[in-house]
Design brief:
Layout: H1 2-6, H2 10-76, H3 83-102, H4 107-136, H5 141-149, H6 154-186
Amino acid sequence: MSEFFTNLKIRQKLVAAFAAILLVILVLASTVFANALFLKGSSDWKDHSHLVLDDLAGIKLSMVNQETGLRGYLVSGTEAFLDPYKAGRKDFDRLIADIRDLTRDNPQQQVRLQRLETAAHHWQSEIAEREIALARQDSSREQGRQAEAGGAGKSDMDSIRAIADEFEAAERGLLSQRSGAESAAYA
């Protein structure tokens, strides 16, 4: 084989050398391009996880606003105190739809999300709306207050928080995996 190269003309040797260099450059460029695509995808997935976590934080805040509005109304009897409750319900519904769409490719998160939504709707319909209806009537206002003071919705709220924490832990686990894969690609 070495005789073959020694018998080649200089022009042919140069073409062969440039072809070898070009082949190495193409292999390196392909590797760099593949890593760049992986890093872009990894970065997109990390951004996705951050969006999910932001929506989850908004869901938690919407529940706090609902609970605060309910309690304010029960204490004051003033309809304006229900504004955070009403706004919180709207935010909750919007954010649940957003996060459901964002996690549509993750069946475990969808199950957690359904459990969270079911628990929140139970609290809204069975606790909050019932207490609001009681507080709107002079004859039953104290009964509504006593229901809240007695912890009527505590188990529902504890369940909502626990499910949200479980959802968040799973999403943070995905974020950690994605960050690890991205770091490995950079290395």
